[in-house]
Design brief:
Strand content of chain B: 25-35%
Strand content of chain A: 15-25%
Shape of chain B: globular
Structural class of chain A: alpha+beta
Oligomer: heterodimer
Order of helices and strands of chain B: EEEHEEHEHHHEHEHEE
Largest sheet of chain B: 6 strands, mixed
Helix content of chain A: 40-55%
Number of strands of chain A: 22
Shape of chain A: elongated
Radius of gyration of chain B: 17 Å
Largest interface: A-B, 36 and 38 residues
Number of strands of chain B: 10
Strand order of the largest sheet of chain A: 2-3-9-6-8-7
Helix content of chain B: 25-40%
Radius of gyration of chain A: 34 Å
Distance between the termini of chain B: 18 Å
Chain lengths: 835, 218
């Protein structure tokens, strides 16, 4: 029989004896939590991608003030992509005696390529256009029929118009066939507040509205295979002229991207916490496994087993258990993720495609890495067992260098952290924090145990304390492991709620939902007065100057200076610059210093864009504003919270630098639902203003937070279960020693009351120390998550400390008592015989 | 088996401590040798060296024509697998394995395809067929030692090393186990090397080797 079959037999027998259960459970939980998060994040990304493309109505589009050269459409069609064009222009819509300026969009059959327009055609309420999220297969499905128009809510409201009535557009009359309930295809970030009307392109000529000199926005939209879209982008970019603008989902709102990134990092680290706990449980189990198999290996060595044979014997078992765990964990992750998606209404309705295999493979690989890092090296010791052990039981276990074992575990953790955390800094911070935390807690536990033992008489628990102190090192390991388990419990119950509440608090009910752009200097006071007259809080107006970045440190730059397409896009269009004496309060200084009153010729740059464009503190930037140039030094870098929904600028200059250039002003404020009409009136009073409704974006950020909150609960459930496994493994790790000790103490005449007191005393001290450290690490990890990932202030909750210590004592005493209660009543002989 | 000037020294603190001093003897195939002596006289150390479980400070052991210590650790393991069986004072059964599985183990390690069948026969020889599927913890001490005997003899070893095989058993059970061991020894023609402090038991072996403080005394 081969070693492989022997391995399987031994595995089966050990399995029967329960040796593998804890390890398998720990590994299943680790893989399960990583797979859940990976799969879920994958699908959330897909959902957001779909939402973003549905905002564009396409995967990518070009908008121009002039007719688009045929090249663009030909290039798209040559790549097998679908393409539709539209023309948008302002025009008066006449209804009875009233006229209203509206934005008319004439669309081709096939529009839109992505997303759905929800309409109400008056028959049975809400009707959805037949357009699916995939590019529609049969052209013309759901498009506005000839002779009819679809009008949006604002137009209907302002003209007091109903579905089925007629309106005039130029020389033609049209039946309003439907009210647009939910629109798409608005310029990202710049949805004009003018009401919208959709018509069929084929009707356009007859209206006579398109004439020489008409203000028309031409738009070409494409959709199809992702790789082809990316390739087309590369083909289009160099051909873009100054009045042509390319947009795709990478231009999607930074606030949504930021929220998503935060969510992914948060979930990733939560899953890693579960994985680390599982790793610790595996390490503890492996230690016990080794101790329990030393004799068996020595016997097999006597029977002629060679080192290589023993190694293979255990390697096969490990690989088998690993495979089993990875399979079960992946399945668990898949099912959990599916249940999660089902339980979140917005995701269930999104009709998401199935997630890819990559997250599962990643979780499986991480599982194996954990197995190797935490459990395999200790096992290597078994192969080096001396056969002499059969004669001399007192021989210790062969040692594999501690540095090697811990080094490998740390290496595996480091790789996993960097992989999950995404950024080197975050990964190293959390990993460093964790390792130093473990080390500090371990040393502290050891020192405290020695101190307590020295004053044992004062506490009336001399034997218990001395007993713990005598096994100082293994007790310290046990305390650290128990506190990790406890930390998971505290995170789940207390810290998680605090964190999510603070995160949700970042977007309070009065978060600005309207941006007003293009306020002229002479309109400033009038706009402020208007807002105050509507009984809204007076908003802050910020100046905006448009300028193009020409050079960094006198080195001229253009799109070709960068490989990154985002960077190319940024330098090829005009920047919105602003100036201010004081830094906006929702910004944070990252490096350098903000200027003081009277200083001039300085710039402050947002850190993200500085990185993208390779701008450093001290660099000199040259801008072209309205045909004249200026240069100034970067004296500070700022962090901007894009998901704060406040007005933000990439570049802010000292007032002296920019205030003499032509500028407009912009502001943001919160418009409560009952005052929506105030927005209409603002536009009516100041027709040049552009009012942007950011309510949808806020809803989307809130949506992400809500989705993440629900996911976090599930992910933390894994953390909790892993925590329980660690607690169990930690208690089990000293079980054999405890059994032996009980047998000897019983033989020497200890009664069960004494043994019970001894054990409960030990467990109480273990629980107290573990609870203390668990609270400390939960508070620390909560702070790290708050500060680095969610970027919210974190207040430590005193309940964490109280529940940590109290819970630690109760839980460990209870678990310990359950584990040892049978022992103290058994005869020493039965204990030694392992009954 | 032949031992030539076999010595074992260890360091006790700074000072060398002689555990065994120039042991010489020879045992022919099928003979039995009892190594006797008081506790700490070096009996178990000698047995460990003879079985190649440990290495000497000097001297050599020849087993079936091979110089044990000219081989590496794995080479000695291979030789043990081919030639030797073991019985220990503390039985050394694997706790997760049933009686039958424990007996199968040496055969499985050699890749034998009929392990189960042969182990069954071996258990029958020691009278434990009925207990084949019991775990060691459900067997009495005597039964455990009989399983260990079945395991030792299942691979029909040329030489059997026994370390205080009755040390953990009461007199009556010990006597039964010894009878069984000597009987199997006789039937299979196995060479027996036995460590014991039981004078009566040692007398039942063909040769005796007495140790005192690491030296042969007769």
């Amino acid at each position: 029989m081969s070693i492989f079959r022997l391995s399987i037999n031994l595995l089966r027998r050990d399995w029967r004896a329960g040796e593998w259960r804890v390890l398998l459970l720990a590994l299943v939980l680790a893989v399960g939590s990583l797979a859940t998060v990976g799969l879920f994040a994958d699908r959330v990304r897909q959902a957001l991608w779909q939402q973003a493309t549905s905002l564009l109505g396409a995967d990518m589009r070009i908008t121009s003030t002039r007719e688009l050269p045929p090249f663009y459409r030909e290039a798209a069609e040559a790549r097998g992509l679908q393409a539709v064009e539209s023309r948008t222009f302002p025009s008066m819509v006449a209804y009875r005696e009233q006229v209203l300026l509206a934005e008319i969009q004439a669309v081709e059959a096939g529009y839109p390529l992505r997303g759905k327009i929800e309409i109400d055609d008056g028959n049975g309420g809400r009707v959805r256009s037949a357009l699916s999220l995939q590019p529609s297969t049969s052209k013309g499905e759901g498009v506005v029929e000839r002779g009819t128009v679809w009008a949006d809510e604002r137009l209907m409201r302002r003209l007091d118009l109903r579905v089925g009535e007629e309106v005039s557009l130029g020389a033609q009359r049209f039946v309003v066939a439907a009210r647009i309930v939910k629109d798409i295809d608005q310029t990202i970030g710049f949805a004009s507040f003018a009401p919208r009307v959709l018509m069929n392109e084929a009707d356009l000529a007859a209206t006579g509205l398109i004439q020489e000199g008409s203000r028309i926005s031409y738009r070409l939209m494409v959709a199809g295979e992702a790789a082809q879209v990316v390739a087309l982008r590369g083909q289009w970019l160099p051909r873009l002229s100054g009045n042509e603008r390319l947009e795709d989902v990478t231009d999607a709102r930074p606030e949504i991207r930021t929220a998503l990134e935060r969510a992914e990092h948060f979930l990733g680290l939560a899953a890693l916490t579960a994985a680390i706990l599982a790793g610790v449980a595996m390490a503890l189990t492996a230690r016990r496994y080794v101790a329990r198999h030393l004799d068996g290996c020595a016997v097999m060595r006597c029977m002629g087993a060679q080192q290589g044979q023993l190694l293979r014997l255990f390697l096969y078992q490990f690989v088998l258990v690993g495979l089993l765990a990875v399979l079960a964990g992946s399945l668990l992750g898949y099912v959990t993720q599916a249940i999660l998606i089902e339980s979140i209404a917005t995701m269930r309705e999104a009709d998401l495609p199935q997630p890819g295999m990559l997250p599962v493979l990643k979780a499986g690989a991480s599982g194996f890495a954990l197995l190797i890092g935490f459990a395999f090296l200790p096992l290597l010791q078994l192969r080096r067992v001396s056969p002499l052990r059969v004669l001399r039981r007192e021989m210790g276990s062969p040692t594999v260098s501690g540095w090697l074992i811990y080094g490998l575990a740390i290496l595996v953790l480091a790789i996993l952290f960097l992989w999950q955390a995404g950024t080197l800094q975050l990964g190293l911070t959390v990993l460093g924090g964790l390792l130093s935390g473990l080390l500090v807690f371990g040393v502290l536990a050891w020192l405290m145990l020695q101190g307590l033992a020295r004053h044992a008489n004062l506490f009336g628990a001399r034997h218990a304390l001395n007993n713990l102190a005598r096994h100082g090192r293994s007790t310290a390991v046990q305390v650290v492991a128990l506190s990790l388990g406890g930390m998971a419990l505290l995170l789940l119950t207390l810290v998680r709620g605090d964190l999510l509440q603070s995160w949700q608090g970042k977007l309070p009910a009065d978060t600005p939902n309207r941006f007003v752009v293009n306020i002229q200097p002479d309109q400033r006071q009038a706009v402020l007065d208007f807002v105050v007259a509507q009984q809204l809080p007076s908003p802050q107006l910020l100046p905006m100057v448009k300028g193009r970045l020409l050079a960094i440190n006198e080195r001229a730059i253009n799109g070709e200076s960068y490989a990154d397409t985002r960077a190319q896009g940024l330098v090829e269009r005009e920047f919105n610059l602003s100036y201010a004496d004081r830094m906006p309060q929702w910004n944070e200084l990252v490096s350098g210093r903000w200027w003081s009153q009277g200083e001039n010729g300085q710039l402050s740059v947002e850190e993200g864009i500085a990185k993208t464009l390779n701008i450093h503190l001290g660099d000199e930037l040259t801008y072209d504003v309205a045909g004249s140039r200026f240069s100034a030094r970067v004296t500070s870098l700022r962090k901007v919270q894009w998901d704060s929904m406040q007005v933000n600028f990439f570049v802010i200059g000292t007032p002296g630098l920019l205030q003499d250039y032509p500028s407009s002003y912009l502001t943001s404020f919160h418009l409560p639902p009952d005052k929506v009409r105030a927005g209409d009136e603002l536009v009516r009073a100041f027709p040049n203003l552009l009012v942007i409704d950011t309510g949808a974006a806020i809803a989307q950020v809130r949506n992400i937070i809500e989705q993440v909150s629900q996911t976090v609960s599930v992910v933390f459930l894994f953390t909790l279960l892993s925590g329980v496994v660690v607690l169990y493994a930690a208690l089990l790790s000293t079980q054999d020693e405890r059994v032996h000790q009980v047998a000897i103490l019983r033989t020497l005449g200890a009664d069960s009351a004494y043994l019970r007191r001894l054990h409960l005393g030990e467990f109480a001290v273990l629980g107290l120390l573990s609870g203390l450290f668990a609270a400390a690490s939960a508070a620390l990890l909560g702070w790290v998550l708050a500060y680095y990932i969610l970027e919210i202030p974190y207040q430590s909750n005193s309940m964490v400390w109280l529940s940590g210590m109290l819970g630690g004592v109760v839980l460990v005493m209870l678990a310990g008592w359950l584990n040892t209660r049978r022992l103290v009543e058994m005869s020493p002989m039965r204990i030694l015989r392992g009954e | 088996m032949r031992a030539v000037k076999l010595s074992k020294q260890v360091l006790s603190g700074e000072l060398p401590l002689n555990i065994l001093h120039e042991i010489n003897f020879e045992v022919a195939a099928g003979e039995s040798l009892a190594i006797v002596g008081a506790s700490g006289s070096g009996k178990s150390t000698l047995l460990g060296l003879l079985a190649g479980l440990d290495v000497p400070s000097s001297g050599s052991v020849w087993l079936a024509g091979a110089d044990l210590f000219a081989l590496d650790e794995d080479g000695r393991a291979r030789l043990r697998g081919e030639l030797a069986g073991f019985v220990f004072q503390s039985f050394q059964l694997l706790p997760a394995l049933t009686a039958l599985e424990n007996v199968m183990l040496p055969l499985e390690l050699r890749g034998a395809s009929d392990a189960r069948q042969r182990a069954g026969i071996s258990l029958e020889q020691v009278g434990l067929s009925a207990r084949a599927h019991h775990l060691p913890k459900h067997l009495s001490g005597g039964e455990q030692q009989r399983v260990a005997l079945a395991r030792a003899f299942v691979s029909q070893p040329k030489i059997l090393f026994a370390d205080e095989p009755t040390g953990n058993l009461d007199a009556a059970t010990g006597a039964q186990v010894i009878d069984l061991m000597l009987e199997l020894n006789r039937v299979q023609g196995t060479t027996l090397i036995l460590v014991t402090h039981d004078e009566l038991l040692s007398k039942r072996c063909g040769k005796q080797l007495r140790l005192e403080a690491g030296r042969m005394v007769d």
